[in-house]
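Reminder to self: keep the SMILES exactly as supplied, no canonicalising. Ligand is pyridoxal-5'-phosphate.
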Amino acid sequence: MPRPISASISLSSLKHNLAVVAQQLISFSQQNRRVVPNIWAVIKANAYGHGIDNAVRAFGQAQGLAMLDLDEAVRCRELGWDKPILMLEGFFEPSDIRVFRDYSLWTTVHCQEQLDMLKAAAPGPGLNAMIKLNTGMSRLGFSPAAFAGAYRQALEEQSRGALCIVGKMTHFARSDDDARVTEAQFNLFMDVCRDLPGPVSLCNSAATLTPRYWLWAPPELEQWVRPGICLYGSTPFPGQSAEDLGLEPAMTLKSRIISVQEVPAGQGVGYGHVFVASQRMRVGVVACGYADGYPRHAPNGTPVTVDGRPTQLLGRVSMDMLIVDLTSLPNAGIGSPVVLWGQGGPSVDQVAHAAGTIGYELLCALAPRVPVDVS
Ligand SMILES: Cc1ncc(COP(=O)(O)O)c(C=O)c1O
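Structure tokens returned for the bound complex:
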């Protein structure tokens, strides 16, 4: 028998979460009498750990997919995805351009070097491109001073046939927690891009789920939103749970108790004895460790569910095992089901919060050795 750990991916939850986003876009667009934004479902990093194949199966209602790994994009085409695919980092070297053409990938253009590669490319089918403006994320994108020049070059490539659709995009740094910063980024985007033709793309999950942010864009513009994390049932907001947003966890990480120990008062538990029992305790050893993707830095008290009942992590997470408190669960024993996060257990965001990180990191870190079942 294989180790009892597995991850379940729920296609219906992925579909549900996309529908929540789509429905919100539709209702706020109708209320404000404007065209509904298109959705690029972001599926980078193996669909945030959920699997490219599963994402393609579940996100059929999205108008496009966004990612950054060429192999993943090719896989989407092989699976029959024939709608737009936006590559969020664009191409990396001249030879990539042929792959972009062969698979009809939209490219992000965020630097002069990419424009130069396009200009130098042999004639071929035109690509669609989103030219990226750095409005304050300080990550990818042309500076506001360089943007008009970059856009002019892109439009020249359009007239030469190397580009077809040319649009503009930016990325918000604090749409989850700071409206003033987000508004300043938006205002800068509009100052720079107001008179430039083409579609716009601004919003990640947090901004998509904050309708006023995408409603800021002029209604006549074709707009694409780029939600990622919310589609997987994890919250983009520090102070609001995924459940409150109507989202369902799409990944459930589960395992079983494989050993039970009686621990006398004063005895340490696990490596480093970072937990010492203050009274006699019963603890269970779960077949799940940091080599499965569970965060090693999760502290004592991190929530976990055993036999459907909430309990807590004790001691340091090992490579293949972790230890939980069974003192108040006398019926739990070897074989008892454990949910590390997801349906029937703590949310991935609760575990991430306890471990001082975000749900994104835990979902993406699911280890390849963990068997996945899809329902
Ligand atoms: C350019 C871009 N757009 C959209 C997203 C999706 O962000 P989120 O998962 O917060 O919705 C990301 C993710 O980092 C991104 O880099």
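Points to follow up:
The mean pLDDT is 98.
The chain has two domains: 11-232, 251-374.
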